[in-house]
Structures are given as structure tokens and as C-alpha cells.
Amino acid sequence: MRKIVAVAALSTALALANPVWSQDAKTVAISCGSLGIEFKVCETGVQAWSQATGHRVQMVSTPNDSNERLALYQQLLAAKSADIDVFQIDVVWPGILANHLMDLTDVIDPKTLEQHFPAVVTNDIVNGRLVAMPWFTDAGVFYYRKDLLEKYDRPVPSTWREMTETARLIQQGERAAGNDRMWGYVFQGRAFEGLTVNALEWLDSFNAGTIVDADGKITVNNPRAADAITLAASWVNDVSPQGVINYSEEECRGVFQSANAVFMRNWPYAWPLLNAEDSPVRGKVAVARLPKGGEDGKHSATLGGWQLAVSKYSRHPKEAADLVRYLTSREEQKRRAIVGGFNPTIDALYKDKEVLAASPFFGDLYETFVNAVARPSRVTGVRYNQVSAEFWNAVHATLSGETDAKTSLAGLERTLDRVSRGGRW
User: Which of 17, 31, 273, 419 has its Cβ near the most Cβ atoms within 10 Å?
Assistant: First the structure.
């Protein structure tokens, strides 16, 4: 695996190479995701740093599937590999990877750190060590075809049941009008971390808890949670295609952007792609908060986002840390927000006129982004990955019709109790 990663990195580095390098030039390898235009936006940023500093950059493309990416990272870090200097890590990984990551406390100016959302910074501090820097934050948002809601004289749904009814109405109407490929709602239903994210939003919107509470108590097996998962399962083969149980973010965007879905749950990255010049839905889409679980429920969005961390095994930690400083800076976060729709972690940018012109909903949904519900990664620590996998598999079993929600959640509770060693994470 190390050899494969090194070759992939080198091939990208050659494309970035400056024809003339100083004798002091160092080579820094960074892993970047490739969801949507993510890799291209990252490439532009690292090229700018390379040109400003005279150092080379190798870009390593990693899997979009977060589970596969984490497995790759763990393999490299366990081997103390120096193939990657800067890792792009998920918001739920600092506790899992902390022992392999450099402490950035002494290399990041405290005043710079104060510009970022405090909750995200706190998330990146493990045992008093700043093991990562916030790069962009995320929260689930609700995309809808505003032209179709106007056509059928329907308001933006406030609850999940209203969404179901409106999705069914418009789906039937559009199919009768000739589009037999139209669906009401698409979401990330595949058995992966994305399903944990979606299902946590369903649970929290029904006031059904967050799988494991802040004190470590397993709370997932409750009637409200069963109601939430049962409702979601009812969408499959009704307002959502059977294939949705195999959809990740890009499959959802593909259906929605081809004008074959009324509603979509996705991350903010999809906004500039939906409004690209060649997009069939350009100018026809708007964004709102995800629906509530009911009148006594709440609008809930799961916290996402990615950080940049420096490997303890980097041959060039000084240069790697400088690259992290540059990429997480206010100027670079502003550029990424405008060209890629990536949510800044710097509060002031949510009042920036240029940022809001590019993504107007950044201002409208500000509270959604700063108050997003966190997955229980801090309380479950190194066991979070197993907790999440057990949760998404239980939910997926219900979505696919293998079992009902009550049975699935009861079994999940028993499994998590064993994983937690009786509630002691």
C-alpha cells in the first residue's frame, strides 16, 4: 500500500512541479479529498503556497468513502510512513488518530486560532494537544426545486411528514407529465459513515437522542428513534428509489442535478455544482434547513467538516505546518468558500459580502452551521468507528427491509453495550 500511495503522490507532484527549485526546497505531500470539485480547489491552494515559498507539493488523492480513507490513514500511520506529511482528516477522527499527529500548539498563533469557531477548535484538541487545524466545516442542508414547489403551489416542507407528502405529490405529477424518472427525495442511504450522518439527523430531529449521550449512556433504543427510522424506511420505493440504499453524496447529486429529484439532503459543496453553467437545474434550486421530526421536533443537521493535521512522521514538519497555516488562513478559506462552496470555520467570513454573494444560504443558515449536532465521537473515543458502523448497519437493515426499526435498535443497544464494556467507554 505504501508503494501505491507514493507513486500516486509522485505522479501528481510532477504536474505541479516548478521548473526551477532552490537547493533548500523541500517536498511536502498532502492528502486531499475529491468529492465534487474538492481536489481541484485544493490543488489551486497548494500551488499558490508552492509558488510563494519555493517548496514542492505532492498531492495524494484519497478515497471519497471516509471509512476507506481512515483505513488507509491508519495503515500508513501505524507503519510510521512518511509518504504523507499533511492529512485531511474528518471531524470525528482527531481522537482516533491523535497519537500519530504533531502538536500544532506552538506553531499556530493564538490570535489566529481565536478566529475559528470555538467548538471546532475544541474538537481538534486532544489531551491538551492541538492535533489539527479547522479547514472547513459542514452541516447537512436541504436542497429543493423551487420551481417545482411554485408549480404545485407547495411551501417548503417544515416536517419530514410534510416533505414525504409533497415529494409524493410532485413526483406523481411530474411522472404524469412525462418524466418517469422523477423521484421525490434522495439522501445518503448506503451503509457507510454518510448514513450515520443522515440517520443522526433523523433521530435528533425527532428529539430521539444522539445514539450515545454526553455521559456515555446508550440512548438509541427508544420509541422516537424507532419512529424516525421507520419513516425513513417508508421512503424507499415510494418517494426514493430502491437504489438510494446504495447512494453516497455524489450519486444523490447526480440524480438531483439531472432534474430527476424534488428534494435532496447533501452538504454545501453541491451548491456551486448545481448552479454551474451546464447544470440542468441552474437557477431552479434553493436551500433550507432540514425538516423537523414533527411539530414538537426540531430542525437538525449533523456536524461535518474536515481538518488538516501534520503527521508525527513527516520529514519536513516545519514546512508541513506552514502549509497547514496557509490553507486554513482567512484568505484561503474565503477563496474556497467562493469557488467551491466550502463552509469557512472563521466566523467573520459569514458576514463577508463576496462569500454571501456566492452562497447566499451561508447567511440564512448560519445558526444551522454553528449549532449542528455532533456525532458521539468524543465520548466514545477510539471506539467511535465501531459504534458508527454498528449504527449504520442497523439503520441500513431497516431501510432495506431486512428487519423493522424496533428490532434493529434493540439489537443495536445490546451490541453497543458489549462494545462499551457496560457503558464505560
Answer: 31
